[in-house]
Structure formats: C-alpha cells, structure tokens
Amino acid sequence: MLRPRAESELYFKRLKKKIIIFSSIMLAGFAIISLRLWQLQVVEHTALAHKAENNRLREVTLDGLRGAILDRHGAPLVNNRPSFDLALIPEDIKELDPVLSILSEKFDLDPIEMKTKIRSSKPFLPVTLKRDISRAGVAFVEERRIDLPGVFMQVKPIRNYIYNNIAAHFLGYIGAISPNQYYKAPKNIYSRNDFLGKSGAEKVYEASLRGRKGSKVVEVDAAGRELNLLKLNPPKSGKDIRLTIDLDTQKAAEEAFKGHMGAAIAIDPNNGDILAYVSKPSYNPNEFAFGIKQADWDNLTENEFHPLQDRGAQGQYPPGSVYKLIVAMAALEEGIIDENTTHFCPGHFTLGNRTYRCWKKGGHGNVNVHSAIVQSCDVFFYKTGLQLGIDKIAEYAGRFGLGKPTGIKLGREMKGLIPTRAWKKRAKKEAWITGETVSCSIGQGYVLTTPAQLARMVAAFANGGSLITPKILMNIDSTRKPEKADSKKTLISSKTISIIKNAMRGVVYEPHGTAWRLKSANKGYQYAGKTGTAQVIRMKQNEDWDHEKTRIKFRDHSLFVAFAPFDDPKIAVAIIGEHAGHGGEVAAPIAHVIMDTYIAGLMKRDAAKITEATSQVENGY
Hints:
By secondary structure, the chain is of the alpha+beta class. It contains 21 helices and 22 strands.
C-alpha cells in the first residue's frame, strides 16, 4: 500500500529539483540580460549614442581648389577640371564581395587589392576605389544604386595641364602624397589621399597653390545616401600664380624643337625673367594628375633618354665653341691680347707630340679675336688659352656664372664643372697637364655647363656685364611683390663687352660667320650669337668624322647662344640639341624662331598700347 506513495513523492521531489534548476537558469538569464542592458544604457551610452548619430549624420571633408598657373600675360597654363571618383563607405556595406563583384564588371578593379585597401581604412571615411570615372561609368553606378549600398560618386577637382607636355619640366606635376610627406605635413593640411606638387613650379609654390580644406555635415539614410545638408564650412581655393614664361614663345620653342633632344632656355637679359623653357624629350603631366599607372611610370623611368630629367637645369654638357667667348673675354681683360692681336691658323696646332686640329681643315689664316669668334677658329683659342692658363680661364668663367648654380627656382640644379689645377689635384689625385688646357680652351675636356648657365652667361653679355638670377615667378597676388631677380656687375670693362658683342653680331651677318643662316631671317632688327659643336667622344688624331654614320649617342651636340635685338636686347637664348650636329645647322634656327616670336609679340603689344592711347586722346580721356 505504501509503494505508490513513495513513487509519488519521488516524482514530486524530482520535479521540484527541475523547477529549481530551470528557475535558476531563468534568473541567471534575466540577470545577464539586465547586466547587458545596464552596460549598454549606462556604461557604453556615450559611445553608442555617438555611433548611432554617425549612422544618421556624417561629416564629409571638402577639398579646396588648387590655384591656377598662368603665363606672364595671364593666359592659363594649368587649371582644374571635375573628376568623378568611385568611392564607398565601409561601414555602410554589409556584404563586400557582392559589391566588388558588381563593380568589377565595369571597372578594372582588383578585388583582393580593394579589400586590403578598405580594411586598412576607417569605417566611416570614404575609400576611393577609382579616379576619373567616365560618364558611362557614372551611369553604371547610378543605375545599380539598390545593389550598391555605401557606394557613391565623389566629384573632385583634378589637375588639368591644358597644353599637355608643353613646358612640362617648368610647370612640373602633382602626385599622391607619400606616407613620409603625410606624417611630416602640418595637421589638417593634407589627407592620406591628397595630391601635392612633386616637381617644377607645382612643387616650388605648393604652399601658395594648395587649397584649404572645408567640411559639411549631412544626414544620410541606412544605405549611406545623403538626405540633407545640415552644416557647411566652405573650403578655400589656393592662390593663382603667374609665371614669367610667354605662352606664344613657349609654343614656338616646342614646335621648333620637334624631333630633337636637348634644352632651350630664353631669358629677359634685363630682369632675369624666364620667357621659354624647353626640355626634350618630355612627358605629359596629365598622366600624373590622378595617379600614374605603374606601367606608364616604368616606361618613363626606364626610358634610355630620360624624359623626366630637366635638361635645362640638370643637364651637363661640354659648351664647345660657346666657351670661346669666355676665353676671349679673359684674354682681353688680362691684356694678353687686344683687338688687333692675330694668330695664324694653318688648320692644326701642335703641342709636344700631339696635334690638335681646327674644325676647318685648310685653316683660317691670320685671325684676330673678332674674326676668330666669327669663324670659330680653334687654333686661335688653343694658343690664347695656353697663354692664359687654366686657372685664369676658370676665374672669368666663374664671373659669368659657369660652374655654379644659377639660382633658378625649379628644384635640384646641377653645378657643371669648370676645371682648375686644384680641382684636378683634389678630384683626380693628378697634376694638371698643359694639353688639357688646350682642350678646355674650346669648351671640351673636363668643362661642363648647363643650359641655364649658358642662358645666364649670354644674358650678361647682352646687358653689358650684369650677372642676373633667373626668375620664374611674376607675382603670387596683388598684395605681394614680384619675385626679385638679383644681379651683380661682373667687373668686365665696357670695351671688352663691346668687342665680344660686335663679334657675336658678326657670327650672324659676316660672310664667314658660323650662323649665317640667321641673316635671311632678319625682320628689322639684328641678332648676335655664337655657335658651338661639342664632341661627345674624343676623335683619333687622323680620324675623319662622319656625323650621319655615327651612332646617335656618340654624335656631336649642337649649341647656340644669342640675344636680340642687338641695339636693345629684350631676349637672350641658349640652345643645346643633343647629338644634333653643328650649332649653325640645328641650334641656331631654333633660336631665331624663339627670338622672332617673342619680339613679334612685344611689337604687337606695343602697337596695341599706342592704339589705345591714341583712342583715349581722341575721345578726350
């Protein structure tokens, strides 16, 4: 009779135990939930409220427009154009793979690379996937907005080099900021995705050109789409800068240089303004404007002709016969020769057991300093250089700025080399050899100069002996003074300068002048110049040189320096055509195109001013 009761008690005892366990679990669950609610509502309230607000409100950085670059007359050379950039907000995308898959259908994107980029970015900051999307690409994204949450198009300004590769080395280019540059830059100036000047004027005047960032606060929906603008802090545009180059002259110089390598620099001999600046081969800065492709970068850096090199300030070349102007000036100033001193040129000169040839096999006969410059007689300068000595030649070369930086503000500049006895002892650990003076006297041997130095040198002859510093900036804005062009007198007598200048005019206008081709291009004013042909490799004593049959990289350089008009110089030029042959054949014609274009522009503007002044008088103003 007691057995059923015992079983019943046992049953209820087990049930009670289960109820206690279940109740404990329930209480523990409620405790955990309550604790979590307390943590969310109290401990993490501020952080979660901020996150929730960010889901609704978003601050967007606005880039200021980069300042435009203008020529000396205000013609635009570089400005900005709108670029549609494909971007996304990582936090707004729940599943990344489907989004990248859709985008890869239209755009050349590497999903693995994009994932790495996205994961290394902050969740609420835009990540740029591709810059400068075409209109078709924009339409593709807009048509698939539902399938692409968090993806949007950013309209950003992109640098626009209006004339492509014209004046590329002078203007420079912009590129993505490097990590090192980013960490060194002042706070709130740049972001990790910004571009800044990497070379040329873009780099030199970066502080003036760059804009100032602004911001806006917008309300967004769950997909990250902007709904309302709540707050705006407008960005500020950078300052426009006006450079010294003349666009028409620059275009003419580029066209005249077509098919050649080398450099051409035109300068105002009175104030140092750079009027034209050509370095060939060149490149198109637009390729850098939104990030250059690796293949394109490799093509530029691995090109054997080095298109990225600024030959104007960094190219170092033997000046050839252009250097004879320095030797002549030094000899006249030192009293070693006067304008009547003559040397006989039989077509060669012997020193010890070595014979040095003149470029004219039959010789020039008796020549004085004037005819020696006009006809570029080597023998006259062999003998004169030996009388001077290498150190005295170097002294006068230094007075006219050779062998030292010109001060042109385009970044790194090479010094060239004007050799002395002390230099060779220091650099080569050897004594100077007399025969080396013979070679240096005609701008060969160890002598190296840059086109910028030669332009500065010829400008000093043109202006009567003042060595000026090249200037690339007209002004930044109306509140700042134009860039100053320093100058100093070279302490050369006016008589010597006059002798040199008249001989340079003879180079163009006398029957045996080495630049007689320019004479036919006379347009009411006269030129003065000096040709040069610089050997790249040394010829054997009895070797006949055939320019056309020689490999290009071993051919002579073509040089020409000049100024015009003769009576009132407004422009001086230095031209070097790499491996182009004789100076009178290649470099001189390029120079006359540059000078004619600039002077024609001056005349046109002067005529316009006269017409305007006459009109004002007639109208009673």
